[in-house]
Amino acid sequence: MNIAIMVPSLHSGGAERAAGLLSKNLSHFYNIFLFLVDVENIAYDYDGTIVDIGKGWPFYGDEIIRAKKKYSIDVSISFMEEMNVWNIRTRINEKIIISVRCAHKSMIPPYACDELLINRWYKYADAIVACSYGVEYELVNHFGIKRPIHTIYNYINKGKIVQSADELFDDRVKGFISDASFYINIGRLHIQKRQKELIDQFSSYVKRNMVNEKLLILGSGNLREELNEYISSKAMDNYIMIFPYDSNPFKYIKKARALICTSRCEGLPNVILESLALGVPVIASDCMAGPRELIDDNLDYAEPFKKIKICKRGILLPFDLNEDAECLSKAIIELKNNDLYKKMAGNGKRYIDKYDLAYINSKWKAVIDEQNDEIKCNYHDEDKAILDNAKEIIIYGAGKAAKQYYEKLHNCYNILAFAVSNKEDSGGYLYNLPVKVIDDFLDDKNDIAIIVGTNWIYANEVVDNLNRLGFSKIALPWF
Q1: What strands, in cross-sheet order, belong to the sheet with 127-130?
Q2: CA-CA distance, 300 to 292, in Å (whole number)?
Q3: How confident is the model at residue 180 (pLDDT cuts 50, 70, 90)?
């Protein structure tokens, strides 16, 4: 059987790493083809044939269809919202499986474009794989998904984690930590990860308890400078330090007193699994999704915890960290109990020892091999219907992507103008069409259809802005 695994790249991100590990494990049973938008700088392990589908940016459809035909794909598995939609829209007659890697409703800013795609397209998949029971809960209860949903946990490479943990520290990290006990946070420097709130909580812990303990934040992102300034404003430079993400974080995790995760939202955090494999307890916010089921086997997401909860393999903090400014202090102090600490560390290792890759393989094989007589080769393209029935059409955006959209669509539709967010970007012309501020179209918002003509990075921001302004006819015509 020929299996396509569709993912943007294999050089960064949890979903990308999961796709690479899936290809390695499924290659024992199937012929694997990795359909990538970006075939450069591959960092993660994989098996199979690399297929470049990124040549038609931002319209990948033709390349995907050609590749599916060329390699006689029987089942196509995709990761992340953009690839999930492309997978569905390019169906020939293969089985479509989409993988959902994150909970969405707690994200800030709102991932409005992702939500639009989920509501519009996921009902046409043959099967949906959620990476955690929390993600499954959200798909059913927040999005009302009725397609078959299968929860399958991530693969992890236990042997590589344990082996890599014996490497030596970077000298700068070693100098910062010295002989102090330290805690570690790993993740993008992004508002979703809430490192600023973590700095607040850890600063309070150090000052109230007068301890010489350190916090190592390992990650990269556009908040680095802002967070460093915030650390200095708290007079915490000797206690908290940010280091760039290291491809081998295991050497730091192994020596840490605990892993601290303060995310607003997750899917199934690999870093928690990795910490448990090394016998390091976890302190985590009770976010949607992952922490509560990994460190306490609790699959019921109906009610969030309001106080810290002592769990089997760590401690849960309340989701809203501002409800208790001392919640992290309380958790760290609980871990000072060596009997409790050793029990959690042992529970974590035992949990990972039972984390059976053969079982995960069997669950994926069951989804792939399951016969489905209701494959829908035809779907109702809501985006096309919006444009076909629109009185007026404009393109939101004025950059490279917007130009590509115009060149692709202007022969099919009468496009009247381009729109931008800021007045300073307006006033010119593209293809002899005016570039106006989106606010100029508010009086006609019930009649205008808007094509989101930006790349994926800005699409969520654009759709969120359109939603707030009251535009309802939003089209994402990626075909």
Answers
A1: 49-52, 31-36, 2-7, 75-79, 95-100, 127-130, 149-151
A2: 9
A3: very high
Rg over CA atoms, the chain: 24
Nearest CA to 118 out of 94, 142, 153, 96 is that of 142
d(CA 310, CA 391): 58
pLDDT higher than threshold 90 for residue 166: yes
202 touches 272 (CB < 8 A): no
**317: β partners:** 285
What is the CATH architecture assignment of 2-155+362-369? 3-Layer(aba) Sandwich (3.40)
Among residues 221, 351, 223, 222, which one has the least CA distance to residue 281?
351
Q: For the chain, which residues make up each domain, given as ranges?
A: 2-155+362-369, 158-354, 382-475
Query: Residue 425: which pLDDT band, with cuts at 50, 70 and 90?
Result: confident
- CA 249, 264, 119, 392 torsion: positive or negative? negative
In this structure, the number of other CB atoms found within 10 A of the CB of residue 411 comes to 6
CB 471 within 8 A of CB 445: yes
CATH number for the region 158-354 comes to 3.40.50.2000
Whether the CB-CB separation of 183 and 257 falls below 8 Å is answered with yes
Encode pLDDT of 363-397 as tens digits.
999 999 987 655 555 677 888 899 999 989 999 99
Average model confidence (pLDDT) for the chain?
91
pTM of the model: 0.88
pLDDT digits (tens, 9 = 90+) for 80-138: 988 999 999 999 999 999 999 988 887 777 788 888 889 889 999 999 999 999 999 99
CATH of domain 382-475: 3.40.50.720
